[in-house]
Design a protein that fits this description.
With 206 residues, the chain is mainly beta. It has one domain: Porin (Beta Barrel), CATH 2.40.160.40. It is 8% helix and 71% strand.
Length: 206
């Protein structure tokens, strides 16, 4: 029964990627995340994203983030760090601060997050505010389905920046290793994109 649910969920995710109109771009994001635990409550986080669109290498984007996060109590996390996004047309970098709080309702877990970004895009400076909510539910001990949405607001060019709706399946593939696959609907004020997501997460402890 659970295997059938997984197959149907995967089929639905891929169906969503092809059910788009001619004006919609389709891309892929390959992501590597490393989570290094420095203590019981402090973690060093690194991430690399390779974003590709329409098999056009000239449009590829590279995002690197590094930072520290800490757990203040059960379900409450704070973090801060640096992020750098590089493309062939612009360079963005700056600091970020984030907070997340989670709650559980039986097997259903809800995570709410807020992220503040100080962005320097070439010679321009902007502030961006990100509000996200993710619901996750285990299909079996090793596979979890998650649905999330994140709204981005900025203090430049109008308040709305973008919206990301994601549907993903996370699978435990080894000790301290997880593979996340799914799709994202990425919407701006003047464009909509579907993105195939593939993220590998590796957790280590000193």
């Amino acid at each position: 029964m659970q295997k059938n649910v997984v197959r149907k969920t995967i089929a639905l995710l891929f169906f969503l990627t092809v059910s788009v109109n001619a004006q919609t771009d389709v891309g892929t994001w390959a992501v590597y995340k490393n989570q290094l635990s420095l203590s019981e409550s402090v973690r060093f986080d690194t991430q690399y994203q390779h974003r590709s669109f329409n098999l056009d290498l000239a449009q590829d984007q590279h995002l690197i983030t590094v930072g520290l996060s800490t757990s203040l109590r059960s379900g409450l996390f704070l973090g801060a760090g640096y992020r750098r996004l590089e493309t062939n047309t612009f360079l963005e970098n700056g600091m970020y601060q984030k907070a997340a709080i989670g709650a559980a309702f039986g097997n259903l877990k809800i995570n709410n997050s807020f992220m503040l970004e100080e962005r320097r895009i070439d010679d321009d400076f902007q502030m961006r505010y990100r509000f996200g909510t993710t619901a996750s539910y285990p299909l079996n001990p090793k596979i979890t389905l998650s649905i999330g949405n994140e709204v981005f607001l900025a203090n430049a060019q109008g308040s709305f920046n973008q919206n990301r709706f994601t549907a993903q399946i996370t699978q435990e593939i080894g000790k301290n290793m997880r593979l996340h696959t799914g799709v994202m609907h990425w919407q701006f004020s003047n464009i909509k994109r579907w993105v195939l997501l593939c993220t590998f997460t590796h957790s280590l402890r000193i």
